[in-house]
Amino acid sequence: MKITLAQIECVAGDVEGNTSKIIEAAQKAKASSLVIFPELAVSGPNPVACFKNDGFAEQCEKALDRIAKECETIPVLVGCPVRNTTGSGKPWFNAAVYMFQGQRNVFKKKYLSDAEKEIFEPSDEDALLQIGCHKYAVTIGQDLANTSGDDFLIVNRIDELMPLKPDVIINIGAEKCGVRTSERRRNDMRMNVLKTELPLVFVNNVAPKKEATYDGGSMIFGYESYVVASADFFTEDVKDVNLECLISMSHVDKQEDYTL
After folding, report:
1. How many CB atoms lie under 10 A from the CB of residue 75?
2. How would you classify residue 89: left for phi > 0, otherwise alpha for psi between -120 and 50, otherwise beta?
3. Would you call 162 helix, strand, or coil by DSSP?
């Protein structure tokens, strides 16, 4: 089983351009069992202001339909806003949408930033993504952040999903770069892996280094919390990884930190 980390540059508000880039990357990974894209890949990250424009929400929905049609035989997991149809709360969810051969599963973000709370409703729906015999806990951005005041006691979205017995953790992100960001992020995710004893797949948004915004650095951790595969920083990088890497017991941690 092969999975693909599709670390692509997604631009806020450029729904058409982002959608075309998602389709192009997915079609290059036709042999993959799952192609994973960053958080809010369709709308672009930090799209709060964009929702004030008439028709933007409908653009995102039509984009999902286009991806589902043009990538029908390719399993994709795409970050995208989805409408809140519950009749209460904010009008949208920040979601990860799985699409394959007419099937569509939606996994919604629970832990939101202050800016996100202006437009998105948090969700505590507990469900796993099952592909073949493997079950994936799908999380988004800050869902993996520690909600405990104790740095050594990690409490987050995974605690709520563990009773469902996932085999792998997925986190799609749109995390901006900063001083020692890569080191901090890698250590935080490593602690999640050590706590759960599950492999973890992280796919981040990316932009050129001159823009100093989203740094990429997507990576996969094996059971011993080592990085067994990683994408480049500050450049688009679509990387295929055999699922066997997720259960690798060897130390292959070669991801180097960047400097701004």
Report:
1. 21
2. left
3. helix
Q: What is the pTM of this model?
A: 0.95
What kind and span of H or E run contains 97? strand 92-100
Strand (E) positions, 20-159? 34-36, 76-83, 92-100, 103-108, 129-131, 134-140
Tell me the CB-side half-sphere exposure of residue 159, using CA atoms within 13 A: 8
Q: Are strands 34-36 and 2-7 parallel, antiparallel or unpaired?
A: parallel
Q: Within 10 Å of residue 214's Cβ, how many Cβ atoms? A: 24
Q: How far apart are CA 23 and CA 44, in angstroms?
A: 15
Superfamily of domain 2-247: Carbon-nitrogen hydrolase (3.60.110.10)
**Over its length of 260 residues, how does the chain's per-residue pLDDT go in tens digits?**
799 999 999 999 999 999 999 999 999 998 899 999 999 999 999 888 888 888 998 999 999 999 999 999 999 999 999 999 999 999 999 999 999 999 999 999 999 999 899 899 999 999 999 999 999 999 999 999 999 988 888 999 999 999 999 999 999 999 999 888 999 999 999 999 999 999 999 999 999 998 879 999 999 998 788 898 899 999 999 999 987 666 555 556 678 888 77
